[in-house]
Amino acid sequence: MNQKDGPPLLAVKHLGVAFQTDQGQVLAVDDVSFELESGQVLGIAGESGCGKSVTALSLMRLLPQPVSKITEGEILFKGQNLLDFSIGAMRKIRGKKISMIFQEPMTALNPVHTVGRQIAESYSLHFPDMGEKEKNTASLQMLAKVGIPDARQVMKKYPHQLSGGMRQRVMIGMALACEPDILIADEPTTALDVTVQAQIMDLIFQFRDTTGMAVILITHDLGLIAENCDRVVIMYAGTVSESASVTTLFHHPFHPYTKKLLQSIPSRAQTAKEPLPTIPGNVPVLSKMPVGCRFAKRCEHALPQCENQRPRMMSVSSGHFAACHLVYDCEKKLNFDK
Ligand SMILES: Nc1ncnc2c1ncn2[C@@H]1O[C@H](COP(=O)(O)OP(=O)(O)OP(=O)(O)O)[C@@H](O)[C@H]1O
Fold it and tell me: Which NCBIfam families has this protein been placed in (predicted)?
């Protein structure tokens, strides 16, 4: 929660996002809330399809059109609701205040323009008074900052002439060019080998350390979250199932889904012959979401109410929240024991 005066840097409140599909309208993100402070690194984790990327794209107001729309909630950036911003006002936020990087850099890079031209364009968009020479110098400095050797040569190249790791660095350079307040990194290192992965994460965190930028790191990789994040939001089937500080989540997980996820991380002690524990059953499909807890069918601890009452986020301890009827059940037991 916010420890300073004034609103948090970012507060997402009860976000809902719907897609129009052949089965009718489905809610891909349903009642998602979280907060982010300057300099904080927030991890968003959960199985494929749980709504991580849709949440991130909503923050940028870059949801695919016309098939999707934000149906409810607020996205408060420094207290102002981005959902009230005009398209023009949003363009000034994107890249300058909130930037996003993707798993596949070609999503963000234009294949028919040189790297130099693309970085210069990010400056032109947000600093229209900047001269050509100034933009060139700033672009060279930015490429050097993201660890690109021989930046002058790289500026003349097209994205396909660079390695995957280099393309990732260029995309990060573009995203960081205007020193945004928030960087959203959606699976930024999944396609890269382990050494380059570590270098890219170091780069992001060096930048965070020097500018105080906040980071939202979206990943399947709980190890990456444990190593790099301050807080974590666990999503399941379009909803938040648990949120806590990283230390609390990894040492005292509450939600049965989080516990299962943590058990499925390979440990160093694991031998190649031992199968990793998996979570039996499947994530419910969007068009047939259960009315109660979305994890109930796969949960070993499900209570009768889990089938027909949707659990709301409840406080487990200070700064630790879980959407699980067991929170209430535990409280009742605790009170009974007194
Ligand atoms: N263009 C679309 N049309 C219809 N449904 C979509 C579309 N894009 C996403 N969805 C649905 O929204 C849900 C959330 O998708 P999202 O990409 O946010 O998941 P994710 O958690 O980021 O998954 P992954 O880790 O695989 O990237 C999924 O069920 C997906 O099928």
Answer: oligo_HPY
Q: Is the ipTM of this complex over 0.95?
A: yes
Mean pLDDT over the full length of the chain: 89
Largest alpha-carbon pair distance within the chain? 73
- Pocket-testing residue among 15, 17, 19, 44, ligand 1, by greatest number of atoms within 8 A of Cβ: 19
19 lines ligand 1 (CB under 6 A): yes
pTM of the model: 0.91
The residues of the chain scoring below 70 in pLDDT are 1-4, 267-276, 330-338
Cα 290 to middle of ligand 1, angstroms: 18
Query: By alpha-carbon position, which residue is closest to atom 14 of ligand 1?
Result: 51
Ligand 1 atom showing the smallest separation from residue 64 Cα: 1
Distance 51 CA to ligand 1 centre (A): 6
User: Is any atom of ligand 1 closer than 6 Å to the C-beta of 48?
Assistant: yes
CA of 276 to the centre of ligand 1 (A): 26
